[in-house]
Amino acid sequence: MDQIGRPLDVLRPVRSGNAFEETVERVLQGMKVGLFAVGAKLPSERDLARHLGVSRATLQEALRELQEAGLLETRRGRYGGTFITDVPSAGAHGSVPAAECEDVLTFRRIVEPAAAELAALARPSAEAGQHLRTCLTDSSTSDDDVYRSVDARFHIAIAELAGSRTLLDAVVETRARVNALLEHIPQLEANLQHADEQHAQIAEAVLDGEAAAARALMEDHLAGTETLLRGFLQ
To answer: How far apart are CA 97 and CA 103, in angstroms?
Structure first.
C-alpha cells in the first residue's frame, strides 16, 4: 500500500530524455514536500518505476546514488525495503537563493545552445576541431575531483568556435556561476556518465556542421543539470 494517501498520485511522471536526473528530482521532491518522511519506506520499486515511467534499472540507479549521498538506506529481510534517512531542504548544501539559481539557469539556457548552434555553423577548422575533441576526451577520462573544471572547459571550447568574443565572455561567466551552484550538490556518477555521452553527441553535431541538432542536444544536456540543481537546492 502506498504511504500518506497515495503519494505516487502527486509525483509527476518523467517526461524528458534525462530520465536518471528527473527520477532523482522526483524522489527528492517527494521527500521535501513530506510525501516521504524520515524513517518512512518508499513505495516498491515496481510501483515507483511504473508511475514515473522509467525502467527499474534507471530507478535503481537513482536510488543507489541517493543512498551514496546519505539520503536513503536499503534494509534486507521480510520488513526490508528502501527507507528515508534524511530529507534535504532548500539550502541544505549551502545558501543559494532560488532567484539567483533561476537567473543563472535562465541565462545559461540562452547563451550555451546559441553557442553550440553558431559553432556548428562556423564549420570548425581541423585544428579547432581537434581542440574540441581533446576537451571531450579530458572530460570523459578525468577524475571526479577535477571533473567540473574540465566539463566547463569543454563547454567553453564550443563557445570559442562560435566566433563571438561577447558570447564567449558570457559563456565563461555563466559556467563560473553554474560551477558555484554545482559545488552545493553531490556528484552523482550516473549523471557524469550521462553527461559524457551527451558531450560526445554535441561535439559530433558541432563538428559535422549540424546546427539545429547541436542546439537541441545542448538544450537537452542543460536541462539535465537544471533538474538536479532544482532537485537538491529548491
So the answer is: 10
Please give the C-alpha separations between residue 109 and each of 115, 139, 174, in angstroms, as whole numbers. 11, 21, 10
Q: HEC states along 85-101?
A: CCCCCCCCCCCCCHHHH
Q: What is the dihedral of CA 137, 195, 215, 176, to 10 degrees?
A: -80
CA 58 to chain centre: 14
pLDDT per residue as tens digits for the range 59-93: 999 999 999 989 999 998 888 899 999 887 544 44
Give the CA angle between residues 57, 66, 70 to the nearest 5°: 145
Q: Provide the 10 A C-beta neighbour count for residue 166.
A: 9
Using CA atoms, how far apart are residues 96 and 187, in angstroms rounded to an integer? 17
Strand residue runs (E) in the chain = 72-75, 81-84
Distance of CA 211 to the CA centre of its chain: 23
Question: Does this model's pTM top 0.85?
Answer: no
